[in-house]
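The pair is quoted verbatim as follows:
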Amino acid sequence: RLEKLNEAAIADFHRQFQNCHPSEMGGLGVPVPQKVTKVYLCSRTHSQLKQVLEELKSTPYRPRMTILGSRKQFCNNVKVATAPAADLECQKLRNAREAQKQADGRVEMVSGCTYHTKFSGLTAALRETKVWDLEDLDQLSAKMGACKFYGTRELRQDAEIIFCPYNYIFDPKIRKSLQIDLTNCAVVIDEGHNIEDVCREAASVDLMLHKVKEMMKELGKMMDDGTVTADVDIMALIVLMEKFEAWVNKKTDTLKARAPLFPGRGNSNRGGYQSRQNQAEPIVMGRAEALAEMKAHIKSEKTNHPTFESLLGAAAPQLEQLTARVQQSGLQGMGTEALGTAETIMRCLDYIAAEDPSSAGPPSYDGRPVSSDGRNSAASDLRLRIGVAERNSGSDNAGMQFSLWCFNSGLVFKPVAEEARCVIITSGTLSPMDSFEGELGVPFPLKLEAPHIIPQRQLFVQSVPYLGELSHSVYSKPDFPIILGKMLKEYAAVIPGGMLVFFPSYGLLERVVNSWKCEYTPGGRGTLFDNIEEHKHVVLEPRMRDEFESSMEEYYSKVDAG
């Protein structure tokens, strides 16, 4: 049968299936579609994955592999990679079709991105390389002028090992957009002590309320235009978003009543609210209260969805259909940002409605039911906040923010553990294991704990009286940063090696360091921060993920320099 195909089709056939194992081929040489069992190896950053890849290259094992990264990390086009909405800019560039003359004289309409037109060649080169790291990827991509982002993603279909940051597995939005199916797959988590924070962060959301207003306008335009909504019923989605916007606006009206406006006084920040010292406290609700209010306000008898749950259930597939239609339309970014906002809202509502808060919560650390005080119940695993954002921008309602805070890492981790064949967590600091299991909400039937690697003679623990009992009330005292800084300066002067100082939040870290930089010491010896740096170079962990690797490089360079 293959003889009847023309030469071009045969070449295409071999290009697609040259790496197929004989067991994957049918009797006529036609590939039999099979799902490849994959191992997802996750770490916090690509720098940490680099060490694993170096070890893999030193072994005789040569699996089919790839590395996943975001456009900001892998896009060759600097203008796109540094754009605030890199995904949208990439889509616009790819959709800007250009005429290109082929080797045989034919003229074809190709992607407006020259890197994107060559990514299949990079994919083939990486397959031939077998095992490669980020340096190999950069060199091949630069040599071929091909897109790293799409070249590596193309390898994902038949890869046996996929290296990626944590959020590709534990962020539901990313996992869904990439259509990552963990069924019968193994997930290996390196530096697993980070996974609780990663899961809580993945389920937490901060959404500026002006984005909700913009989303509603964009959805209205899409309905009026009819290009992508002609044969897609999105009425339940529209009603759900309208009801959500009305409910949130009602809450913000309550805040306005608590903190009335004073036009022309010069003390109102952008967003129409008073300066921080005068503004009303934000509205904060637990999961049970939020769900009760949504059941009361977010429903619609007109669309045959008289309950919040039925309206939410009907809107979810409509959002998926609309998203697929927009992606297929080829229109330059039409509705992309609005659909992203709608998906964020849907994710928040899904978490809030996931289970009845009045039901029993997750198991306690020792496997027995939780106590009746509610501290570990499902009702306490989420907090919803509506109020002025930390950093205001824009006008009108720009400074107002809707936030969902997750305190239960099991909300994100448990679905991954249930879908995957197995999850392996590795770390040197997981003890106590019982509490770690309780936090993640799943039992670990197999555990291996090695003895402590630090000999007893090298271990010294000391409790110092400088600060008293560490609590939120102590952190908020004006003199706390200075007392802490003076204590660390004394320790920095006598400790021969490095120091690692933990802070409970980025906000506290930034407040403390800023205080050190403003506190000048007697005798003109600079600031308290300068005094600490006389003994130890200070490297700060940044808030933003994309700045983390540069901080680690700074740290390693100082260590190497002695």
About this structure: DSSP finds 23 helices and 13 strands in the chain.
